[in-house]
Amino acid sequence: MKNILQMLEKDAKLYPQKIAFEDMDGAITYSELLQRSRQLGSYIASLGIKGKPIVILLKQSVNTVISMMGILYSGNFYCVLDYDSPDDRIQNIISTLEPKLIITDDESKEKSQQSFSLQSIALGEAGEEINDKVLDEIRRAQSDTDPAYVLFTSGSTGVPKGAVLSHLNVLKYSKWLTETFDYNENTVLGNQTPFYFSMSVSDIFGALRCGGQVQIIPKMYFSFPLKLLQYINEKQINTIYWVPTALCIVANWKALDYEELPGLKKVLFAGEVMPVKQLNMWMDKLPDALFANLFGPTETTDICTYYILDRRLANDESVPIGVSCDNCPCLVIKEDGTLAEKPGESGELYARGSFLSAGYYNNPEKTAAAFVQNPLNKSYPETVYKTGDIVSINEYGELIYLSRADFQIKHMGYRIELGEIEAAANSVEKINFCACVYDKESDDIILVYQGRKIDNESLSEQISNKLPHYMMPTKMYKLKEIPFNANGKIDRKWILNNYKNF
Amino acid sequence: MEEKIIEILNEIKSGVDYRNEKGIVDNGVLHSFDIITLVRKLSDEFDVEITAAELLPENFNSVEAIAEMIEDLED
Question: Minimal Cα–Cα distance from A420 to chain B, Å?
């Protein structure tokens, strides 16, 4: 295979009447998805746009998937944006991406045409004509190294960066994913992650790779844990790949006490650190299910290392990020530039191989900073991705995530990983969830947490059982809610800027 | 009680005619984080424990539904 669409074409041949994707408004079979995508592809091709980025501005839906595939049929590549994103952020991305077209809905068409002065079409305008000859010609002229999509990472650094991912990246990545977790035509995925976030790549292409099914779970259900579990049963979802926050909502509300999930066989998670306490609550309720922690950045398509839970972890342990994915060997480079190999050693994680993005769209500086020559290879050009993540090797030879390179702080002369403080605080009984930030100016380690009331003194005492004195938080605040950014990750920047007012 | 509930709802998101709104959840008046905040405020104000069994859209769609849920919990 050289093109993502060949997966769809195979599915449509093998399972034409099978539901491929379903949302609140309805379902689409593989043969319908193929047809609608080819219609849209023919229409876009007729506009004379080729090899260019096209923006999708739609709510999370089956229509988004049709748009993705249609854009690929037209020989262009897509970029899904957050429908609810403020205009400023969209404008910011558009000025980097310089797209030729926006695909949106009737509701937003006029607005998007005016706000972004770009040609906009509503999906419904595509018509029903399929031009086989043109689509064949487009395919013949393409290579597997051509981009399939651009995914913008959250703008914690100010300017969002758009990682370019190719057909090859997705083909290699989805092969690893489906083989490792045994996804097959009976797999029904319960999608939680937004399509503008890299984790959704695993849902969409994990299903396309093997003729599985994606149930797009309405966002609203994540406020109503019991409803969410009932929905999983109703739709016969057997595999989920969620952010830990979503899993924690279910665990903290003890929703599994009210509704069992006999059909759920695989629980995968990624995107942030999974607290062990809540993980154990899930594992106790689903003793026969497979649980796995996946780890990786958008720049390695989605994931570069993984750990299948094979033992019970203590509440103050971290869930390992495990071992490299097959075909994406990772390196841990110590501060002295040599390879970390032995238990106890730590360093920065580098990834190499076929999952690697080509770089950032229209951003040679950021590309050059992150996509670098393999520091261990002096003989020929070999690009590796510098993840910016600090990891260590445990006694089992598994990788443990410590923190972002820029989360590693120096406090009282010690090198400290904020992630380690979070793991210690998370093990405290009354804490449901926490985050740690470091204020360089005042040299304060700030811990914010969610949970039941606990006075600072006894909290300190409990944490001090786990941490050396120099790692103790200097300020602690109970928040009603820990804030999240657009991608559903903890908004550390906001905490740092606002903690003085808590 | 309904007055107090409306007051809490207004603290979370103002400018809504809560008295007549019958689809606080279904019409997307409140979003996910708002719901969680609402639950916490209701628990604090009325000193009730709202569990996953009560945390259902139908219990939050209108002021009456919220009041009814709290009354049941108080019993």
Answer: 27
CA distance A411 to A438: 9
Smallest CA-to-CA distance from B38 within B19, B2, B71, B66 is with B66
Give the number of domains in chain A.
2
Dist CA A153 CA B43 (whole Å): 37
The pTM of the full predicted model, rounded to 2 decimals, is 0.86
Half-sphere exposure of A68 (CA within 13 A, CB side): 28
Which residues in chain A touch residue B52, judged by CB atoms under 8 angstroms apart?
A: 225-226, 253-255, 257-258
Task: Among A224, A248, A249, A481, pick the best mutation site for testing chain B contact (most B Cβ within 10 A).
Answer: A224
CA distances from A286 to A318, A368, A427 (A): 20, 45, 21
Query: What value does the mean pLDDT of chain B take?
Result: 91
Contacts of A136 (CB under 8 A, 6+ apart): none
Domain stops at, among A126, A142, A158? A142
What was the pLDDT predicted at A257? Answer: 96
Let me know if residue A206 belongs to a domain: no
- For residue A144, what are its two tokens? 């597997």
In a 13 Å sphere around the CA of B62, the CA atoms on its Cβ side amount to 8
Nearest to A461 by CA among A425, A436, A434: A425
CATH classification of the domain holding A496: 3.30.300.30
Task: Name A316's Cβ contacts closer than 8 Å, sequence gap at least 6.
Answer: A276, A423, A424, A427, A466
For chain A, which ranges sit under pLDDT 70?
A: 154-159, 487
Residue A465: CB partners within 8 Å, gap ≥ 6? none
Beta strands (DSSP E) in A39-146 are 53-56, 77-80, 101-104, 120-122
Range of the domain at A481: 412-502
Nearest chain B residue to A481 by CA: give it.
B37
Complex ipTM value: 0.89
* The domain defined by B2-74 carries CATH number 1.10.1200.10: yes
Its sign, for the CA torsion A502, B4, B6, B7, is negative
Residues 6+ apart with CB under 8 A from A372: A383, A384, A386
Nearest to A265 by CA among A236, A299, A288: A288
**Which of A223, A255, A257 has its CB closest to that of B35?**
A223
Residue A3 pLDDT: 98
Is there a domain that residue A419 lies in? yes
- Does residue A84 lie in a domain region? yes
* Residue-level pLDDT at A156: 40
* Domain spans of chain B, in order of start: 2-74
Q: What is the CATH number of the domain that holds A41?
A: 3.40.50.980
Our CA angle for A319, A322, A327, nearest 5°, is: 150
* Side-chain-facing half-sphere of A479: CA atoms under 13 Å: 22
pLDDT at residue A160, as a whole number = 79
With a pLDDT cut of 70, the percent of chain B lying above it is 100
pLDDT at residue A146, as a whole number: 98
* DSSP symbols for B33-47: HHHHHHHHHHHHHHT
Domain end position, chosen among A142, A162, A182: A142
